[in-house]
Every structure is written in structure tokens, then in C-alpha cells.
Write a structure and sequence with these properties.
The chain is about 25% helix and about 30% strand. The chain is of the alpha/beta class and about 400 residues long. The protein folds into 2 domains: about 5-55 and about 350-385, Urease, subunit C, domain 1; about 60-345, TIM Barrel. Helix 4 crosses helix 5 (about 205-215) and helix 8 crosses helix 9.
């Protein structure tokens, strides 16, 4: 029988602030959030947790992770490693979306899908996008629409690359066809059907999206551009995109080299976008976990690379709160409700009765991660992993 959890007297951010509450979780769901729930007189396997020194927030939703690694920009030896379960759970991530990147030859959709199933078996919720940087998109069935309809874990397409030297330089018509196929697939399968867009540093920035939308029934809301903190020009273009109703994503994994060469740190980007009047629900953070973070010379030669870390997702949200004075609600929204909403994951990203029991307890004093629950299962206690992946020590 599954354990029933009763968290008492915890400050709840759902991510909206609800004040001191009790939370009951059972059967993988949040059963109730309220006041003065009693634990007495029950023969059920009930675990009571004193949450008086904690803050409860939704489990984090990481909308861009390279489950099976990525990169290879420096040759075969530079292919980055696969993600492990605790890479996510120790960072509070309970839902993650896997993607392919530059390499869709030695990194395949079948491998991505298998890894997604493995991670879900081990403890977290996973989804994937079909396709990769390249257009026409690689698919499993031969069709973006069919992939979304027939394969449960596929919820969108991407990340397709634009304004980047690694892009396949898709035409306006090709981008339109990708968006149309994703939209129809999403409609018929009840999924988000968004197009995840890898944003490079090219001068066109978001213009390929605007060109694709112009004169059609498509909307900018169909596209979900990431890496929008790549430099100031990209960031400013992102603010304009959001002002037209779009959702923009800031990448939390970075390098000292990138920051020295103009990248806007994700925590700072989130704070500035909020100050500019962009609604919190239009702003997300993602880790780009296990991606390669290449460092190029001005002439485009590879100088080296580092590996993206899923743990940077919450680190950036926490920095936004502690260093940039972003409210807890807004910072947590960027890694929970906002990505869940744009991806169409209606059971994720919020704390409410009837939703999936994905929850993180933070220490009140320093906002460090204390406990993590995924689908009602306790995976982290006192900042230590209690459940590990099959091949983790």
C-alpha cells in the first residue's frame, strides 16, 4: 500500500502564496490543501511531516533536457554523457522534457524515448519532443503529426534551430509546415503541440518566426524560443516577442566565457523581464541539462566545451529571489506553472487538490532543497537522494 503523507503547517506557494497550510498526498495525487487536518485515529500507513520550518512549492518542470547527452561539436570524444535520475531530483526537478540537439545521427529518437521511459520508471515524469535542430525534422513514424498522435511521450517538436550557424537554415515555408503539423498533432492528441526553437546569435534573431506567422493562421504562441538570454540583442528581441503574446525561455546552464561575452545570466534576465512588465506566466527557465556548451572563437573555431547541469534550474530561480529580489511566487512560476502551461501539462506545475503530487520542500532560512516528492513518492530527504537510478552508486 502506498504511503499517505500529511505535511503540517507549511508555507505554501502554489506557486501563488497560500500562507500556512496542511497538505495531504496519496495515490500519486494531492488529495487536499487546507488547515488543521488531523492525523489521529487512522489505521492507514500515514507519514506526518512537520513543515513549520519549510516552504512547499510545486515540483520543478524542466522544459529542455538532453536525456541522452548532446554535442559532439569537437568530434566523437566530445559527446556529452546521459542524464541520471539524481541529476534531476537533487535539483527538485520532477518533470523533464527530453530533446535532441545538433546531433540527430548518433543521438536518435528511439534512444531518447527509451531513456525517457527509463527515467520515468526510476521516479520522475518525462516527455519528449520529436525532431531536432534540423528541418525537415527527424521523426519515428515519418510524420510530426503522427508522432504526436501515436506516441504518448511526444508532446511537441524541436528544438529546431534558427539564426544559428548549426541550423539547417529552414525556409519560411518549412517552418510553417513544422508548426502546422505540430498544431494538428497537438489538437488531435490533446497535447500542447508547441514548436521548441533553439535561438542562436544570428542577426535575424526571431525574424524567421515572424515571417512564418505572417499571412497565415499561425500564432507566435505556437513557438517557444529558448536561449533568449544568449546576448542583449536576443534578450531585447525576446521582450518584444513576449509583448506580442509569446512565451520566452532563459537558459540556466552557462559558462564564464558566455557571461563574459554578453550572455545575460538567467536569474538577471528573469528579473529584468518582470521589471519590463512581462507577465510571469510568459517567462520560463530551462536547464539545457547534459547539453554541450561549446566555446567558439570569433572565427567560429571550437575552443572547448562544458556540460549543462539540470541543477542550475533551481539555482537560477533561487538566485533570482535572493540576489535580484524576484518574489518567490514569480521565481517558482518560471520553473513550474509557466513551463507546464506552455507545454500543455495540466497536471503539473501547481499545488492543488487533484493534481499530481509533485512537491518540493525548501528550508525557510536559506531556500535550499530539503525534500522532493514525485507522484507522491519521496525521492529526497534532508537534501540527500533516497532513491537513485539503477546504475547510480
Amino acid at each position: 500500500m502506498n504511503t499517505i503523507f500529511l505535511i503540517k503547517n507549511v508555507e505554501v506557494y502554489a506557486p501563488q502564496h497560500l500562507g500556512k497550510q496542511d497538505i495531504i498526498m496519496a495515490g500519486g495525487k494531492i488529495i487536499a490543501i487546507g488547515s488543521q487536518f488531523s492525523a489521529g485515529g487512522s489505521d492507514l500507513p500515514l507519514t506526518v511531516i512537520d513543515g513549520s520550518n519549510n516552504i512547499a512549492v510545486p515540483g520543478f518542470v524542466d522544459s529542455l533536457v538532453h536525456f541522452i547527452g548532446g554535442g559532439g561539436e569537437g568530434g566523437f570524444a566530445s559527446r556529452t554523457p546521459e542524464m541520471q535520475l539524481t541529476d534531476a531530483t537533487l535539483g527538485g526537478v520532477t518533470t523533464a522534457i527530453g530533446v535532441l540537439g545538433t546531433d540527430a545521427t548518433t543521438r536518435t529518437l528511439t534512444n531518447l524515448l527509451a531513456k525517457a521511459h527509463a527515467l520515468q520508471t526510476e521516479g520522475i515524469t518525462t516527455y519528449c519532443h520529436t525532431g531536432s535542430y534540423q528541418v525537415p525534422c527527424r521523426t519515428l513514424t515519418g510524420s510530426i503529426t503522427d508522432d504526436l498522435i501515436l506516441i504518448d511521450k511526444f508532446i511537441g517538436v524541436g528544438e529546431i534551430a534558427i539564426s544559428d550557424h548549426r541550423s539547417s537554415q529552414p525556409t519560411t515555408d518549412e517552418i510553417r509546415k513544422v508548426a502546422s503539423a505540430a498544431k494538428v498533432g497537438g489538437i488531435l492528441s490533446g497535447k500542447g503541440g508547441i514548436v521548441s526553437v533553439h535561438m542562436g546569435a544570428g542577426e535575424r534573431i526571431l525574424q524567421p518566426i515572424y515571417d512564418a506567422v505572417a499571412g497565415t493562421e499561425l500564432s507566435v504562441k505556437q513557438f517557444y524560443p529558448t536561449h533568449m538570454n544568449r546576448n542583449r540583442s536576443v534578450f531585447n528581441a525576446g521582450l518584444e516577442f513576449a509583448s506580442q503574446g509569446g512565451v520566452i525561455d532563459f537558459t540556466t546552464s552557462t559558462t564564464a566565457y558566455d557571461l563574459e561575452h554578453g550572455e545575460v545570466a538567467a536569474a538577471q534576465a528573469l528579473a529584468e523581464a518582470l521589471q519590463a512588465g512581462i507577465e510571469p506566466i510568459q517567462l520560463t527557465l530551462s536547464s539545457d541539462g547534459n547539453a554541450s556548451l561549446p566555446i567558439y572563437s570569433k572565427s567560429g573555431d571550437l575552443l572547448g566545451l562544458q556540460v549543462g547541469q539540470v541543477s542550475t534550474l533551481y539555482q537560477s530561480a533561487r538566485d533570482a529571489i535572493l540576489k535580484h529580489k524576484v518574489s518567490i511566487s514569480d521565481a517558482i512560476c518560471a520553473i513550474s506553472q509557466a513551463p507546464a502551461t506552455v507545454l500543455g501539462l495540466h497536471q503539473k506545475g501547481r499545488l492543488a487538490a487533484g493534481l499530481d503530487a509533485d512537491l518540493v520542500l525548501l528550508n525557510r532560512d536559506d531556500l535550499a532543497i530539503n525534500q522532493v516528492f514525485a507522484m507522491g513518492r519521496q525521492l529526497v530527504i534532508a537534501g540527500k537522494a533516497t532513491v537513485k537510478g539503477m546504475f547510480e552508486k
